[in-house]
Amino acid sequence: MFVRKKYIEQLLRYKDLPIAKAIVGIRRSGKSNIVIQYIDHLIENLNIDKKQIIYIDFEDFSNENLLNAKNLFDFLNDKINKFKNNKKIYIFLDEIQKVEKFESIISTFYKKTNIDLYITGSNSFLLDNKRSTLLTGRTIPIYVFPFSFKEFYQNYHKDKISHYESFDLYLKFGGMPFVSFLNFQENEINQYISSIDSDILVKDIAYSLFEKKINVNNVLLTNIKKYIYTQCGNSTSVNSIRNNLKQNNITIYNELLEEIIESFCNSFQLYKVNRYDLKGNLILKTDYKYYVNDHSFRNIFLSNYKENLGFLLENIVYFELLRRDYIVYIGKNNRNEIDFIAIKNDEKIYIQVTKEININNQKREIDNLSNASGATKKILLSLDEEEKFVESIYYKNLIKWLLE
Predict the structure, then answer these.
(1) Residues 317 and 381 sit within 8 Å (Cβ to Cβ)
(2) Burial of 313 from C-beta contacts in 10 A (0-12 / 13-18 / 19+)
(3) What is the Cα–Cα distance from 350 to 376, expressed in whole angstroms?
(4) How many CB atoms within 10 Å of residue 295?
């Protein structure tokens, strides 16, 4: 099993702190495996006794009776009370959003001095506004993403094929961890990704809308999703989505469309990115861009996965920046656009992404960076081999940058 060290290290930083660790992310991104790896680390490297660990998977049918909050409370309380010494007890509740009134469980156990509480969830019901009052100050989120290209290459291809060949497979198949078990067979992988996509549609998106008493059919949701997926990297507004639906003889009002898009984002499948106005130094409320958590979901709707390759590369870079703990915006500098403004502590990095630098795009790509002030670093990422530093801009090979 490929150990996802970044997440293990993150969990170790929060170990034993009086706060619930919420491990959240899109379905099948590897959250449960990370929990198992972390438990193994506690046992093998920190000498935690197995008896100190309580792990419950709420997707396991044998735990169905524990989906009731009272039953779960009694079960955990009984386990804790039987533990006679003063050693810490580590509780892991996997897919806790399935538990009725799970907020009460978190609020009850996170503050006990002898408990270290960890929870996982496949959607942001754990963190949404409805529950924020109950959970504020009680949870700290740890966001799990599908494999980065670095993880993909190290897990599947290191010392077997070049990173260039591996990157082409990553472009095609994405980073969902189970892909390797399918031996990179295109039909099987497409079926697998389609099944996850459908699962998210029914169990996360449609369900969250149903909770809000909004009943919509799957055809409408699929049309909205397909349009946003294929527009990744383009400015996308509610009006542009609605106009596209009209072309398919589907009429919808803006408020409902906004609720549906919010549910896509709450499933962690789509991320909405704000624009950052460099001149006014403020975040704008219009002209969002959307990126899809793993580009394999986009690819299953396209006949050619390299269609709009520049936008596909942009999608990969956006999530790489999130993995590296940056806050990310789209940059606006007067009429010019910078693909990403990445901010972390005192860093403010301006990043431009393109397939290649050529005579047709050289002036636009370089000028957009050159004319923008306020950056601690400016980077132009492309698939070009040559790397250099010219007039305050770092020209970097995108594949090598992903492996840093």
Answers:
(1) yes
(2) buried
(3) 8
(4) 24
Q: What does the CA dihedral 72, 78, 81, 86 come to, rounded to 10 degrees?
A: -50
pLDDT (tens digit, 9 = 90+) per residue, 198-234? 999 998 999 889 888 998 988 899 999 999 988 888 8
Query: Distance between CA 364 and CA 83 in Å, rounded?
Result: 66
Query: Is the pTM higher than 0.90?
Result: yes
For residues 177 and 160, give the distance between their C-alpha atoms in angstroms, rounded to a whole number. 19
3-state secondary structure 179-239: HHHHCCCHHHHHHHHHHHHHHHHHHHHHHHHHHCCCCCCHHHHHHHHHHHHHCCCCECCHH
Q: Which of 344, 346, 314 is nearest to 330 (CA)?
A: 314
Query: CA–CA distance from 377 to each of 20, 177, 373 (Å)?
Result: 36, 33, 10
Q: How many CB atoms lie within 10 A of CB 285?
A: 8
Chain segment 106-128, per-residue pLDDT in tens: 999 998 999 999 999 887 666 66
* Residue 309 CB partners (closer than 8 Å, separation 6+): 171, 355
